[in-house]
Specification:
The chain is α/β, with parallel strands linked by helices. The chain contains 9 helices and 10 strands. It has 2 domains: about 180 residues, Rossmann fold, CATH 3.40.50; about 70 residues, no CATH class. The longest helix has 14 residues. The protein starts with 7 loop residues before the first strand and ends in a 17-residue tail after the last helix.
Length: about 260
């Protein structure tokens, strides 16, 4: 696993989000130091995606605040965005574009200079192994290659923080292994928060686990601490009251 420093790169303070009277998340607080890989877990409807959208500035909180590399995302949105890359689940990729065209589009939208864009494109193409599909329409690519393109655009501006929502969803075992290797390598220079439904991913890549249920943070610790009383699966079931009679499914956020 990666070494960490004392610099806080992601900080959530008492985050709450309501949709009318519906509570999506309530009083979620945590901080992530530089260089750490954090797995963000929870059952469907627990509030993971709502939290991640707030962390990335795509959704405003009803209460609380978010800091990315010390920048208040509500007041310093553009500065924070320069320090952060975001890979949403099923993120929008323009299917008529080629990966190269997409990277050029995002680089220009971010105001990158021609030389920086060229250098960074060459680097992320190599990192994400896109050399053989650069000129193919994204709509013709496999799920695995689309995920690589999405990761490449998230890395293009060389962010310090990388936030990913279900990055291995829909990938086959070989693609998952490849993606995990990429994530581990990236953590040498980046702070990573990723949500996942795949519990094996926690042991494979994570330094730390945040577990939410019913819109609240119910566990914050290492993978070893999570499985102290058994397997990660059993701890997950216990902490989320899996299968308990009378517990409504999806009582967190409206998405996940």
């Amino acid at each position: 696993m990666t070494d960490v420093s004392n610099q806080t790169m992601i900080e959530a303070r008492n985050l709450s989000k309501y949709f009318g009277e519906f509570m999506a998340i309530k009083d979620i607080t945590f901080s992530v130091p530089q260089g750490q890989i954090v797995a963000f877990l929870g059952p469907n409807g627990a509030g993971k995606t709502t939290t991640m959208r707030i962390l990335t500035g795509f959704l405003g909180p009803s209460a609380g605040s978010v800091f990315i590399a010390g920048l208040d995302i509500s007041r310093q949105r553009l500065e924070a965005a320069r320090r952060m890359g975001y890979l949403p689940e099923n993120g929008p990729l323009y299917e008529n574009m080629t990966p190269l065209e997409l990277l050029n589009f995002f680089g220009e939208a971010r105001g990158m200079t021609d030389s920086d864009l060229k250098n960074r494109t060459d680097l992320v193409v190599e990192q994400c192994a896109l050399q053989h599909v650069l000129e193919k329409p994204i709509g013709k690519l496999s799920r695995g290659y689309r995920q690589r393109v999405g990761l490449a655009q998230a890395l293009l501006h060389d962010p310090d923080v990388l936030i990913m929502d279900e990055p291995t969803a829909g990938l086959d075992p070989n693609q998952i292994r490849e993606f995990r290797t990429n994530i581990t390598n990236l953590a040498h220079s980046k702070t990573i928060l990723l949500s996942t439904h795949i519990l094996q991913e926690v042991e494979a890549v994570a330094d730390r686990v945040l577990l939410v249920d019913g819109g609240r943070l119910v566990f914050d610790g290492s993978p070893d601490e999570l499985k102290r009383n058994g397997s990660i699966e059993e701890s997950f079931y216990s902490l989320t009251d899996y299968g308990m009679p009378g517990k409504p499914a999806g009582q967190g956020g409206p998405t996940s």
